[in-house]
Amino acid sequence: MTILEARYMKFVHGTWRGGQGPGTAAKPTRDKNPSLQHPYSSRASQETLKISLKEEKAVGLRQQELVQKLQEEIKTLNQWLQNKSSELEGKSADLEKKSTDLQEVYTELEKLRKENEALVSAKGPPDSGICLILYGAAVLLSLLALLVCCLRTCACR
Is residue 109 part of a domain? Predict the structure, then answer.
């Protein structure tokens, strides 16, 4: 039921639903008396209905304007979301490439670490070249430290 129909029912029957009940107006009878004629036949009733119709049209126009504004806002938000999505996809691709590069570097470092451990903990015969070099380097460093200490004590005197 539209607003216009509801107003008509209220005006004619005294209720919104058109039923008889307490506080309802009696139905006018058709008579030669102008006050008892059908409500649409009076000039005031016609003006009231015209005003009601204009109000209903104005409300409808406002609703259409609001719907259009909402549709434009939705389009704007959808465009913004698409732009953000594209931007994030680009960043995701960059991060994936960096992740791959870092994985390669990590693999290389792990390989070098294992090689270093193998060299340091190489177990071979006591006269193997690497062991002799390492022992010799330790002895030379100890002798150098003793020499430095001796030079300092001599220089202090």
Answer: no
Q: Are 72 and 65 in contact (CB under 8 A)?
A: no
23, 14 contact by CB (below 8 A): yes
Mean pLDDT for the stretch of residues 143-150: 80
Cα gap 53→7, rounded to integer Å: 11
In a domain, residue 68? The reply is no
Distance CA 94, CA 112 (A): 27
Helices (H), 1-128: 3-13, 43-120
**Residues 4 and 53 sit within 8 Å (Cβ to Cβ):** yes
Structural domain boundaries, residue 136: 125-157
**Tokens 């999505």 -> residue:** 85
- Per-residue model confidence (pLDDT) at position 41: 56
User: Is the alpha carbon torsion for 86, 87, 92, 94 positive or negative?
Assistant: positive
pLDDT value at residue 5: 75
Q: At 48, is the pLDDT very low, low, confident or very high (cuts 50, 70, 90)? A: confident
Predicted model pTM: 0.37
